[in-house]
Amino acid sequence: xxxxxxRKLIRPPVRVRxxxxxxxxxxxxxxxxxxxxxxxxxxxxxxxxxxxSLADISARMKKPPYYPEIWPGEHYKLLxxxxxTLKPKMIVELGTxxxxxxxxxxxxxxxxxxxxxxxxxxxxSFPDTCFRESDxxxxxxxxxxxxxxxxxxxxxxxxxxxxxxxxxxxAAKDGIMxxxxxxxxxxxxxxxxxxxxxxxxxxxxxxxxxxxxPFPKLDLTSFGHWSGTGxxxxx
Length: 235
What we know:
- By secondary structure, the chain is an alpha/beta fold.
- The chain is built from 8 helices and 7 strands, in the order H-H-H-H-E-H-E-E-H-E-H-E-H-E-E.
- Strand 1 (90-94), helix 5 (100-106) and strand 2 form a beta-alpha-beta unit.
- 37% of the residues are buried.
- The model has no long low-confidence stretch (mean pLDDT 96).
């Protein structure tokens, strides 16, 4: 509602393909700051992103813009860099959509690792899906059609989530789903210490959620998605 009002009230000062309203916040009074480990991880991932090609994934798209090859500005190469750097055994993704993010991460996933992606819609139902049946054959990529923001459903996947070393959160951005998911994560064991990657942290509905995260965090928007990319060291 607020976004719709702002779009009518305040027009972008320049002509662009896509514009969003946001706020800028001071950093010194944030409740959390990035750790040395988080900054080091980000630097390695960015360096990898600078060199990597995702042209094979872009080739699956029906038409431009070919987002996986746009960097900086899109997060796909950064995601690939994080996976290549951390070499996780388990990745969880919230928000499958067309599959571009999952494919970018899977490309650099170690052979014995798994990526589990969740969405409210099965991948075959997306008209522009970039997935193929063959992507799921070796069970390194799995999709569940379920809502991890639901306290009733979340416990079904506790074992998967507690193994996750990277969780990529690219859900509804409605100001509700992501917060409920974070609240659910707090119910996991004390040994649960993954890295969380958030999409769209500069969007209006994500501003408060991102600001209120109490764990070490780093805004990587300049090296990720133009609408905001955030990295969190969950503790």
